[in-house]
Amino acid sequence: MLERLYELRAAVQAFCWRHSAQAQRAGGLHMAQTDWPLIHILCHFLGPFDDPTKLVSGTDASISQAIPLICLLEKKLLSLVQQYEGEETGQALAHSLLQTLRGNRQIAEIRTQEHYVLATYVDPRFKNNMASFVPEGEGGLHHWTQRLIDEVAENIRDVQDHGTSQRQTQQQRKGSASDRGRSLWDSLELYYPLP
After folding, report:
1. Is 99 a residue whose pLDDT tops 90?
2. pLDDT score recorded for residue 135
3. Residues 84 and 112 in one domain
4. Looking at the structure, do residues 125 and 40 belong to the same domain, yes or no?
5. 21 or 61: which carries more pLDDT confidence?
6. The pLDDT of residue 102 is above 80
7. Fewest beta carbons less than 10 Å away: which of 35, 77, 90, 163?
């Protein structure tokens, strides 16, 4: 919307010029010629937020995209800091946005919460860039690799335990193994299922 305003600046400026005395008397909006460079800079700075906003608003958005999008946004803001070096307004705005992004407690927590990191880790779109997304410290990528292995192993055990308990329940409904004339080996299969 701000981009469209900037594109139509000639028409807006002409309207403001024609109605400037009336707008000033009424305390209304008055666009000065010096406002346009600031609006242009704002459009440039808000651009990097557009793609991530569209991605997380899509129907196929997932939590695995959160950390990569935060990292992408941070890189884009860092490039804007470098791009506007020497220009007071642009650099101040870039630094402000970057510090706000880095200082936001909720965003910082997303980057370190296990379910976000592991979701990003298992998403095939990010497998080659995982080292750049993983929070540093605590062993970095090695730590998260081990956490993923542990989580998968725990889920496998849970599934096996659930399957075993279901078989035991079914057997109890049918009667004990000795009642049905089953051998010792058949009974052991209930407690120690073969892979």
Report:
1. yes
2. 67
3. yes
4. yes
5. 61
6. yes
7. 163
The count of domains in the chain is 2
Q: What is the pLDDT of residues 22-31, one digit of tens each?
A: 655 555 566 7
What DSSP element (H or E) covers 49?
helix 35-57
User: How far is the C-alpha of 157 from the C-alpha of 2, rounded, in Å?
Assistant: 54
Q: Please tell me the distance from the alpha carbon of residue 33 to that of residue 22, in angstroms, as a whole number.
A: 17
Place of tokens 């695995």: 64
User: What are the tokens at 190?
Assistant: 């209930």
Nearest CA-CA partner of 70 in 2, 135, 148: 135
Token digits for 10? 């000639």
Find where tokens 């051998």 sit: 183
In degrees, to the nearest 5, what angle opens at C-alpha 156 toward C-alphas 155 and 158?
A: 60
List of residues 6+ apart from 40 with CB closer than 8 A: 6
